[in-house]
Design goal:
By secondary structure, the protein is of the alpha/beta class. It has an 8-stranded mixed β-sheet with strand order 13-12-11-14-15-16-17-18, sandwiched between helices. A hairpin with a 4-residue loop joins strand 1 and strand 2. Helix 22 packs across helix 23. The longest helix is centred in the C-terminal third of the chain and has 21 residues.
C-alpha cells in the first residue's frame, strides 16, 4: 500500500499508520481510498486480526480532508462540461461506502488522534468505534467544509448528530467550528483525552480490552438520537424550524451548502445509516455540481494557501525575516501592526512624535493581548510580547531595524518628512514600507534615496483581526523589497496579494465604488433602507451607507478633495461627490461624531436618520431590490475589471482574494473575477451596457471585457493577450 502502513502486533491488533507521500498533511485521494479498501478487507477477513487502531505517521496531525486536486477530477468530464449531480454521486459515495464498511467490519476499531483532524479525516475518526485524542494545544477536530462552499460528505452530517445531538451538531457544522480535545470529550465526540503522544497506546489498550465492541450505537436496535429526532419529536421539530430561517438570514439565501446540510440531516437522521449516507451523498453531489463550491474552494482555500506560501514571492531572493521592526505612527493602525509583529517574535520600536501617543500605542498592544488570556495566551507570554515593544519619540532608537513600516497621517509632505529622517538613521538599503491606503507609492518613494527599496504595505483595520495585507509595487520597487514585505506578512500569518501602483490601489479603489453607488442611489431619492437591505442581500457584510459611516464620510471627502487637487483636469467627477460634500457640510461625518447616514443615539441602537428624507427627497417610484443589488454589484465588478485591464492587478487570483478578505466582497461568489467567469463575460458586458445607458459611463465595459466576450475568454482561462487596452 502506498499511503497506509499495516502492522499486526502479538495481540492481533492491526495498526493502520496513514502517511500519504509528498504531502505535508494526510489527505484523501485515490491512492488512500484504494489502500483503505484493502486494509478494511484484511481487517474483516483475517481471523488473526482482533481489532485495529488507525493513526497518523505525520507530525503535522492526523488527517485533513479530501485532496482538492482529486476533488477537482471528480467534477471533470470528457466533454469539458460540468457533470450533472447524478454523475458525481458514485464518485463522492466511495468514501461513505468505505467508512460504512469500516464500522461494520465486525472488529473493534479505535482512532488515535494527534494534531489536526478535520474534514474527511474527522469523518474517518467518527466511523471508528472509539476515539482517543492527545491533549496538545495544537490538536483540533471538526467539520469546516461549510467555510469553502461544501458540507460534510463522508458521513459527518449523519454520525455527528447521532453522537452529540442534532441541535449541538448543527451549531458546529453550520459554522465550521472546531473542537479542542477537552471540549470534544465533554460533548462525547472523543472518548478519551490522553497525554500528548500516547493516543496510539490508549487506543490499543481499549481494543485489547474490548474485543466484542464492534458495533456502532446507531446500529443497535432501539438507538435514540441524543435530544431526540423525527417529525413527532417536539425538540427536533423546534430545532429544524428555527435552523432554517436563521440560516437563510445569515446567508441571505446565497449559499447552497448550508441548506443542503439541513436537508441531509432532516431527511437522514431517523433512517438506518446505510440509507442516511446515500441521502447525504445525494445532497453533497448536488452542491459539488454547482460552480459556487468550485469557486469558493479555489479562492478561499487553494489560492489563499498558495498566496500564503509565497506564490508571488521572487524565487531567487534569499529569505529575509524581520527581526526588528521600526513602526512609525502609534495610532490604531500602527499599534495594531506593532501587536501582530510582537506576537510573531519581532522587536518593535513604536515611534510617534508625541511620547504620550507612543505610550498609548503600547497600551493598545497590552489591551489586545489581555483579551487573549486563557485562549492560548499566558501572563508570561504576554509579558514577553510587551517587552518587545518600545515606545519612543527618538529617531535614534530605530537604529538596527531591518524593516520599516510607516503609518503616519495621510499627507504626502508629512510622510516625506518622516521618511527622510528615518533614512538618516537606517540608510537607504533598509526596506521601507508605507501603510498608505490611497496615496501613490511611486510618489511617496521619491523621499527614499533608493526607490527600489520602497514598497506599499497596506493593512486593514483592525489589524489584529483582518487577514489581508495588500502589497503595492511602485514603478521602481525591486525584488528584494517584494521578498522582504512578503516574508514579513508570512511571519505575522496574514494573507498577501501583490498589486501595482494606482490611486487607491486595488482594494480601496474597488471597495470605494460600493460606497459611492450607495450615495448615488440616495441622491436619486432611493429609500436608504432599500439600499442597505440590497447590499446585505447581495452578500456584503453590511450595507454601503453603514460602512460609509464606519470609515467616515468626512474621510471620503478628504480623499476625493486630495485626488481632485492631485489630478486636476484628469479627475473624473462622480455623482456621489456632491452628495458626500453635502453630508459633511451638514456636519454628518459618520459614526465618529454620532451623525451620518445613520444616527447613533447614546445607549441606543443606531438607525437610518430621518433627516435623509429632507436632504434627499424620496423618488415617487422606487426600484425593486434586484435592481439595486445589480447596481451595487456591477459597480464593483467593472472597477475590478478596470484594475485588471490597467495592470493594477496581474492575476485574477489576487483580485478574488483581495476582494473577499479585503472588503468582504460576497464570499459565495469566490470573488469578482470568479463571479464574472461563472455568469459569463458576454452576460457581464450586456448588463454593463444596459446600466451604462441608464445610469452613466461609470458602468461602461472595458475594451478588454468586450474582447473577452467576443473570443469566449474568461479571467481564469484567457484566450487573448493579457491586456486589450
Amino acid at each position: 500500500m502506498k499511503t497506509i502502513r499495516f502492522d499486526i502486533d502479538a495481540d492481533g491488533i492491526a495498526t493502520l499508520t496513514i502517511d500519504v507521500p509528498d504531502q505535508s498533511m494526510n489527505v484523501i485521494g485515490p491512492d488512500f481510498l484504494a489502500d483503505l479498501d484493502t486494509a478494511i478487507t484484511r481487517i474483516a477477513s483475517e481471523e488473526g486480526i482482533k481489532g485495529a487502531v488507525i493513526a497518523s505517521g505525520k507530525d503535522s496531525g492526523f488527517m485533513a480532508g479530501m485532496d482538492l486536486k482529486y476533488f477537482g477530477s471528480m467534477l471533470a468530464s470528457e466533454s469539458g462540461e460540468r457533470p450533472a449531480p447524478a454523475a458525481i454521486f458514485d464518485k463522492v459515495f466511495v468514501l461513505n461506502d468505505l467508512l460504512r464498511r469500516l464500522e461494520t467490519s465486525g472488529k473493534p476499531i479505535a482512532c488515535a488522534i494527534e494534531g489536526t483532524c478535520v474534514g474527511g479525516g474527522f469523518e474517518l475518526a467518527l466511523a471508528c468505534h472509539r476515539r482517543f485524542a492527545g491533549d496538545s494545544p495544537k490538536t483540533q477536530l471538526g467539520l469546516p467544509e461549510i467555510l469553502i462552499g461544501l458540507f460534510p460528505g463522508g458521513g459527518g452530517s449523519q454520525r455527528l448528530p447521532r453522537i452529540m445531538g442534532v441541535q449541538a451538531s448543527l451549531m458546529y457544522m453550520l459554522q465550521g467550528k472546531m473542537f479542542r480535545p477537552a471540549e470534544a470529550a465533554m460533548l462525547k465526540v472523543v472518548d478519551g483525552v490522553v497525554p500528548q503522544g500516547t493516543a496510539v497506546a490508549a487506543a490499543k489498550e481499549w481494543v485489547k480490552a474490548n474485543p466484542t465492541a464492534n458495533t456502532q450505537p446507531w446500529d443497535v436496535k432501539g438507538f435514540k438520537v441524543p435530544g431526540g429526532a423525527g417529525g413527532f419529536n417536539p425538540a427536533f421539530v423546534q430545532t429544524m424550524a428555527g435552523a432554517l430561517p436563521m440560516t437563510l438570514k445569515q446567508t441571505q439565501r446565497n449559499m447552497n451548502a448550508p441548506i443542503a446540510l439541513l436537508s441531509a440531516v432532516y431527511e437522514g437522521i431517523t433512517l438506518p445509516m446505510d440509507r442516511a449516507i446515500r441521502i447525504e451523498s445525494k445532497y453533497f453531489a448536488k452542491v459539488a455540481a454547482d460552480p459556487q463550491a468550485s469557486n469558493m474552494i479555489r479562492t478561499l482555500f487553494v489560492n489563499k494557501q498558495a498566496a500564503e506560501r509565497g506564490a508571488r514571492r521572487p524565487k531567487d531572493e534569499p529569505k529575509a525575516p524581520t527581526t526588528k521592526l521600526a513602526m512609525l505612527g502609534a495610532g490604531m493602525m500602527g499599534a495594531g501592526i506593532a501587536t501582530v509583529a510582537a506576537q510573531a517574535g519581532m522587536e518593535v520600536v513604536l515611534f510617534d512624535r508625541d511620547q504620550a501617543y507612543a505610550e498609548k500605542g503600547k497600551v493598545h498592544v497590552e489591551e489586545v493581548l489581555k483579551k487573549r488570556l486563557g485562549k492560548g495566551m499566558t501572563p508570561e507570554k504576554m509579558e514577553q510580547m510587551l517587552a518587545r515593544v518600545t515606545p519612543t519619540t527618538d529617531y535614534a532608537a530605530l537604529a538596527g531595524a531591518d524593516f520599516v513600516i510607516e503609518a503616519v497621517f495621510e499627507d504626502v509632505s508629512i510622510k516625506a518628512e518622516v521618511t527622510k529622517k528615518v533614512e538618516e538613521v537606517l540608510g537607504a538599503d533598509t526596506i521601507f514600507g508605507s501603510n498608505t491606503s490611497t496615496l501613490p507609492i511611486t510618489k511617496l518613494a521619491n523621499a527614499w534615496s533608493k526607490p527600489e527599496n520602497f514598497i506599499g504595505v497596506h493593512f486593514f483595520s483592525p489589524v489584529e483581526k483582518m487577514p489581508l495585507v495588500e502589497i503595492i509595487l511602485g514603478e521602481k520597487t525591486g525584488p528584494t523589497a517584494i521578498a522582504k514585505a512578503l516574508d514579513f506578512v508570512a511571519q505575522i500569518k496574514k494573507t498577501p496579494i501583490v498589486v501595482h501602483d494606482s490611486r487607491g490601489f486595488y482594494t480601496s479603489r474597488s471597495f470605494g465604488t460600493y460606497v459611492q453607488e450607495g450615495a448615488e442611489l440616495v441622491g436619486e431619492g432611493i429609500n436608504p433602507a432599500l439600499i442597505e437591505n440590497a447590499g446585505k442581500q447581495l452578500g456584503m457584510p453590511t450595507g454601503p451607507l453603514a460602512v460609509s459611516d464606519e470609515v467616515s464620510i468626512e474621510l471620503g471627502v478628504k480623499i476625493m478633495t486630495a485626488a481632485k487637487k492631485e489630478l486636476g483636469d484628469a479627475y473624473v467627477p462622480q455623482g456621489s461627490d456632491d452628495i458626500m460634500v453635502k453630508m459633511v457640510e451638514a456636519d454628518r461625518l459618520g459614526r465618529k461624531n454620532g451623525r451620518g447616514w445613520y444616527d447613533y443615539p447614546e445607549g441606543e441602537k443606531k438607525h437610518l436618520s430621518p433627516v435623509l428624507g429632507d436632504m434627499f427627497p424620496r423618488a415617487a417610484e422606487q426600484p425593486d431590490v434586484e435592481a439595486v443589488k445589480e447596481r451595487l454589484l456591477y459597480r464593483q465588478l467593472i472597477e475590478c475589471a478596470r484594475c485588471f485591464e490597467e495592470g493594477v492587478l496581474e492575476t485574477p487570483e489576487d483580485g478574488d482574494i483581495g476582494a473577499i478578505f479585503g472588503w468582504g466582497f460576497a464570499p459565495y461568489t469566490g470573488g469578482p473575477f470568479s463571479h464574472m467567469d461563472t455568469v459569463g463575460i458576454a452576460h457581464v458586458v450586456a448588463v454593463l451596457d444596459r446600466l451604462a445607458a441608464a445610469h452613466g459611463p461609470r458602468f461602461a465595459p472595458t475594451a478588454q471585457l468586450r474582447e473577452m466576450a467576443a473570443n469566449g475568454a474568461t479571467f481564469y482561462r484567457p484566450v487573448l493577450s493579457r491586456a486589450a487596452a
